[in-house]
Amino acid sequence: MASSAPRKRAATVITEVDATRATDLYRTVARIRAAELVLQRHITEHGFGGFWHPGLGQEGVQAGAVAALRTDDYMFIAHRGLGYALAKGMSLESLFGDLFARTVGSTGGKGGGTVHFVDPERGVLGQGGAIGSSFVLGAGAAISGQMLGTDRVCAIFFGDGASSRGTWHESALQASVWKLPIVWICENNGWAVSARISEQSPTENIADRASAYGVPGVIVDGQDAIAVFDAVTEAVDRARAGHGPTLIEAKTMRIRGHYEGDRQKYRDDLLVGDEIPRDPLGILREHVPASVADQLDDDARHEAESVLASVLEAPRADPSIIYKDVWS
Amino acid sequence: MTEQRTQESPGDGVSTINYALAINHAMAEEMRRDSRVWILGQDVGRMGGVFGVTRGLLDEFGPLRVRDTAINETFIVGAAAGAAMTGTIPIAELQFADFMLIAGDEIFGKLAKWRYMHGGKLSLPAVVRVPTGLLGGVGAEHSQSLEVLGMHFPGVKVALPSTPADAKGLLKSAIRDPNPVLFFEHKGLYRVKGEVPDDPEFLVPFGVAAVRRRGDALTVIATGMMVDRTLAAADVLAREGHEVEVIDPRTLVPLDMETILESVQRTGRAMIVHEAVRTAGAGAEIASRIHEELFFALDAPVWRLGAIDTPIPQDPELEQLCIPQVPGIVEAMRGLIAL
To answer: If DSSP codes are grouped into helix, strand and coil, which group holds residue A2?
Structure first.
C-alpha cells in the first residue's frame, strides 16, 4: 500500500451504528458552524482586536477527524477556525475567551485574536504560529506517548500551504522510519493565503507524496464528515497498532478570506462569499432526521450566541499578566 | 587547569576526567535516575557523537532513549519541544552551535515562548546541547559563539561551562530544570581534564557565578574558553603586582549580576572577555548594566574584549587572530589598570 498512489475512499454505506455517529457529527459540525457565524457577525459589526482565520466550510474535516481520536490522544491544530479544539472537548467559553482576551480563556486572558488554544488534559497542544511548525512538535509528542508506555496517537492538522515547509519533509522521513504513531491530516482548501495549490505543488494531490515517505496516502472528501471519520479511524488504528503514520488529504474549500476582513482581490473563483457548496451539514442531513437536525442547529446557535455574550461580559486580565509564565 | 579553578578538594568521591566525559556522566546519571530522560541527535547513538560525548549511552539505555536522527536539526529540536510539552525530558544534541539557526523557530519560537503564550499550561523541560566556539580549522559555519542569542530571546536559560566540574553539575541542573536550556559546550575544552565530584547529587546551580581568582585591581568577567586565558593573563599581572579578580558567570540566563557588581564596587574597574563577536555580544549587556548600576563607583569605563567583526577564517592560525589571546588580554588589563 505504501508504495502505491494515494487511495480514494469510496462513499460510506450507512448502518444503524453509523446513524448515531452521523447525529453526533452533525451536532459537532453545527456547533462549530454556529461559532464561526457568530464570530463572523461580531467581527463585521464590531471589529476585532486581532486576526481571525475563519474555518467556515471546513467544519466537516475538523469534526470527522477529531471524532476518530480518543480524548487522551494528542492533537496539533491548524489555524483555520476553532473547530478542532471544540470537537476535542474544550469549552466554547474558553475558546471565545481566548479570542477576546478574557480571563475565561484557556490562556487566562493573555490570548486574543489568534488561535493558540491548548488544553493538555484533552490532548490539545496548540498551533504553530510559524505555519508548518507543528510537524516536528507533533513527532515529539508521539515519541513521548511511546516512551511513557501509552498507546496515544498524535494527529497533526495542516493546510496545503504548510505542506511546502521543510519541517514536513524532515518529519515525514523520520516519523516513517521510526514508525511513530502519527496521523497527518491535510485540509487542502486550495489556497495558501493568495497562492493557489497549483502554484505550490507540481502534483494535483498532497497525498501523492506519501509513497515517497513510505507511508499510506489517502484522499477523502473533506465535506463528508463521515468519510473523514472513517479514513482517520483507519489511520488511527494503524498508528496505535505500531504500524506508523498515515497521510490523509481531505479535499475542502476556503469560503472566506485568509483572515476575516481579507478582501481577496487576488481571487477570481466563485466560492467567495457565504455560500457553502457541498455544505458538510447538508451532506450529514442525508443521515439525520430533519427534526433532529433542526433542533441541533437551534441548540448550537443558542449556545454560540449566549457564550459570546457572556464572554464579552467577562473581565480582561490584570495587566500584570504580561509578566507571568515566562518560566516554570 | 590552574589551582584556582579546582573547586573541590581532591580525595574520595572525586575523579579526574575530561570535560566531554563529565558531560557524558551527567547524562548517564540523570538517565539512570529518571526514565523520562532521553537523547536525540545526529550520530549520538552508534557513533557516540561526533565529539564522542554520548559514547556508551546507546549500549546502556537502548535505541528508544538514545535516538540517532537523520540530518534534520529542525526535527531534532522541534521533536524535543513536542516531547518536552508531553511529559518526557529530551536532551537534543546539535553537532555545532551554529546549527541552532537551522532550528531557530524551534528554539526561539517554541521552546522559549510556548509556555508564556499558552498561559503557563505547558512546561518545556528540554536541554539543547550545542558545541560552541573555535576548534581549529572547522570554518566560519562551525565556529561561532552565539550564546548571546539566548539572552535576547526571553524564555530560554543559557549555560556556558568552562570546567569539567561545572559541565557536569550545570548539565545535571539543566536536565532537572523545568525550563528549556541552551547548553553551550566549548569544543576546545572537551579534552581538558579536571576534578569532578562522583556524587550523583552533585549539582551546580544556575545563576551563581564562580569567582575563579580574587583580586582588587580589576574585575574581569570571562566566559567559556576565555576563562583559562584570562586566568593566565591574571598570573602575568600578579607578577607585576596587580591582583585581578576573575569571575566566570557560568550561566548567562540567569545572570549573577550581584556577584559581578559586588566585585566591581570593590575594584572600580571592569572588563569582559568573551570569544563571541564583541559587537552586541553578552559583554555589551554586562558592561551596560555595570555602567547603569555603578557609574559613580567606576574609576574607568568598562572595557570589552571579543572577536573581531568578521566571519571566522578556516585556517587554524588565522582563526586565533580573530579572538582574544593571552598577550592581548594582558595588554588590555595593564591599560585599564593604568587609566
So the answer is: coil
